[in-house]
Amino acid sequence: MPRSVNHVASRNRRKKIMSLTRGNFGGRANVWTVAKNTWEKGLQYAYRDRKNKKRNFRALWIQRINAAARLEGLSYSQLMGCLKKAGIVINRKALADLAMNQPAAFKAVVDQAKKAVK
């Protein structure tokens, strides 16, 4: 009896991965084994960088808050300490947004935190 192979499914599986690697350089786009390895490695990078993206944004927010806080005469760590002592709960993303887009509101938050600590 001849061997039965589901060539339709295996070809479609390969075509799907080959279409995902379209645009890569050289054999990475059109050689099956190289393209498959490229695609798998890309998934690893994507998984890793979804975590790194969060880390990078947090660092950016901290830099922005620090720059704005120094204009008010405080360092980043002093500002965060004052906010905690004052009981002001605001996350870094929102605080950085205030610092960038609404300096008057940021100044009001900083003044409130300074006043509560004194």
What would a concise description of this structure say?
By secondary structure, this protein is an all-alpha fold.
> Treating each run of at least 4 consecutive H or I residues as one helix, how many helices?
6
CATH topology: c-terminal domain of poly(a) binding protein
What is the CATH first-level class name? Mainly Alpha
Order of helices and strands: HHHHHH
Give a count of the beta strands, DSSP E runs of length 2 or more.
0
Cα separation of the termini = 90 Å
Topology:
Layout: H1 7-20, H2 27-30, H3 32-71, H4 76-86, H5 92-101, H6 103-117
Helix pairs in contact: 1-3, 3-5, 4-6, 5-6
Overview of the structural elements:
The protein is mainly α and 118 residues long. The protein has one domain: Orthogonal Bundle (c-terminal domain of poly(a) binding protein). Helices cover 80% and strands 0% of the residues. The termini are far apart.
